[in-house]
């Protein structure tokens, strides 16, 4: 199981939290006009809460003690109006702050999704989809629970607390100071519990991310798990991660559970102190009964905001842990940003050149070690060689999924790093061994790269790809809904639709990565026919392990350990009796057998 990262010193944790909070508050900038309205409502609600105990205490001394029933009724009516106004203000502040926070969180989710979509493939080489989903869903949901639902109440309690302290010190300085003696103890208690909770909540966010990654991986590979009798192993591995997440949450909850009784004890201690000393003052004439009554009510109100704020503070530790993970993702460098002076790729002819290209997925090991190739417009270039030799890497560099470590990749003599990625990729089509279809209609899947394509364009592409007849045989034809990854279509049917998708964008350069493998013989004939049409007049790069599919290639490049060891036509390489000829003879012998 992955570690949770280095241990951070408490002072560094506080600094990180402050920085995280400042960055989170930047999301409030679009709501500068709404925030003053919300704060006004918060202030109104807090004021109504603070004035009540004062009026009740005053009524004891000036109305009840003097038997002024009429005045008491008027005061009760006034209190009713005040509290009704307070209810209206509190309801308004919750709605207004909730409106702001939900839009803020929606923007945060949008930023995460945009970032994920724009990150280079090298990031996904070292990341798990389940963990990224956890940041987008679980971590943002944790922030929502901490801030979205309680921040309005928290703001109200802050203003209430300030108003109560001012009222207490104004009414009776001695009792006011006595009531506040426990505040330093509360601050110390909250600080200690928050520090413990922060460490545990970091673990909970990490473990839920690992659990989500494991869940996403196992659900996607359930067929393989059953086929290889690995279900019991997957269950055991999931149980370990699930137990780690459970234990982390239990520890965090245990800390929180111990925190609230501690605050309650301090609350009781302060109430007892006010009752004892206030009773003494009332007996000795140092304070009236009404003042003591007001103080007892204020003490109860005084500690309720502190309890809520303290509880929110511990709950916010989980939110901060989630925000840290979110901002780490948002800060991930997009290594393949367009250059500031990048231009649009003009309509290309299809000439592709690799000039002494070196590339490694990490700085320690090169995958390509000085590759040179030149494909003329309209040529078919076959890439053959063992798995891991660098064939797919060459394709990735043409599409600029990665940038070269050294050398240059040029199309029509233009370095691909000097043009925008969008203008480059819209002129390159790709058909993979395992193409992904998406939930949606057949027509939407064909038009994946050209969302505004007309129905006539879609059907023309399908006809060229030899899949129109099959689509029209479906229950709803082109509007037939497909499930996740194109279910329930067969591998060959999905491949034909993927070819139609490539046809529709009308690319000048076409990439085929094992496009005819893993399909039956009859469907392969349809695929080969569709590919033959698609290749006409286009530069193509074909990765093939079945060498019989590349005998008509303009150039065959034999790649081993990141270098081109042989190049030429099929006939030329057979005549050389080298690596390619040996591979072809082995496959021919295996086929004959």
From TrEMBL:
Residues 37-318 form the ABC transmembrane type-1 domain. SMART domains: AAA. SUPFAM superfamilies: ABC transporter transmembrane region, P-loop containing nucleoside triphosphate hydrolases. Keywords: ATP-binding, Membrane, Nucleotide-binding, Transmembrane, Transmembrane helix, Transport. GO terms for cellular component: plasma membrane. Residues 352-586 form the ABC transporter domain. It is found in: Cell membrane. The keyword Transmembrane applies. The chain crosses the membrane at residues 37-60, 72-90, 154-171, 177-197, 274-299. It is a multi-pass membrane protein. GO terms for molecular function: ABC-type oligopeptide transporter activity; ATP binding; ATP hydrolysis activity. PANTHER family: ATP-BINDING CASSETTE SUB-FAMILY B MEMBER 10, MITOCHONDRIAL, ATP-DEPENDENT PERMEASE MDL1, MITOCHONDRIAL. This is ABC transporter, transmembrane region. It comes from Tolypothrix tenuis PCC 7101. The lineage of its organism: Bacteria, Bacillati, Cyanobacteriota, Cyanophyceae, Nostocales.
